[in-house]
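Async update (no meeting this week)

Hi team, since we skipped the sync, here's where things stand on the single-chain job. The sequence we agreed to prioritize is pasted below, unchanged from the tracker. I ran it this morning and attached the output directly underneath so nobody has to dig for it. Comments welcome in thread, and please keep replies under the output.
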Amino acid sequence: MASVFISTILSLMILSNPNPLKNIHKINLEDFKHNKKIPKIIEHSILVALSHYPELKDTPIAFVFKKNIKKSIMQAQPVIGSLLGGKDCRAYQVNISSMFKLTHTATPIHQLPDSIMIGWIGHELGHIMDYESKSTFGIIAFGLGYLFFENSLKKAEVIADTYALKHGLGAYILDTKRYILDNSDLPEAYKKRISRLYLSPDDIVEQIKKLEEAKLKLEINH
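Output:
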């Protein structure tokens, strides 16, 4: 009965979609600027996302606006030259489409709601966490699989989402997915791609529940 009660409470908390930004003022976001190149206009969103990944605090990451990214809004990738050294030498770049393209119009990416940007960036940082867990050869093999095999592509996107959820970005990831899938102005082909390759909102809610239940049980046992 206790587990059912906990599950019910967690479901209500998640579905009520509380403002995930309400406690951000308690964090010193300036601490997460080290070794980062960040466009000023989206600095807050990026720093909030980075604050959920303390493991990346010293990791060199450049966030760069691009005019066009094929099939994507954002794209995280290792800087090729940095792969020639050891893991401590690695650097990454997150490409960000400067425009959010809709069916008939486009809007500057920085005009998206803050929580949506944080969710998107949080997902890309999940990719970087995945890269950090791999050897140089593993990253090369991953890149080839990502380019040529849809199963590998889907696995990579699910892993990135999962990293974000485990790092406390669940509410943001859920907001971002709902924003995409419920947006009538987005091309259907793009929404179908998101539905096919990424965790669904229902999957995200279920994972958040499981993570919170595990956390609650751990706190109870201690």
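Quick observations from my side:
Residues 28-202 form one domain.
The chain has eight helices and six strands.
Reply here if anything looks off.
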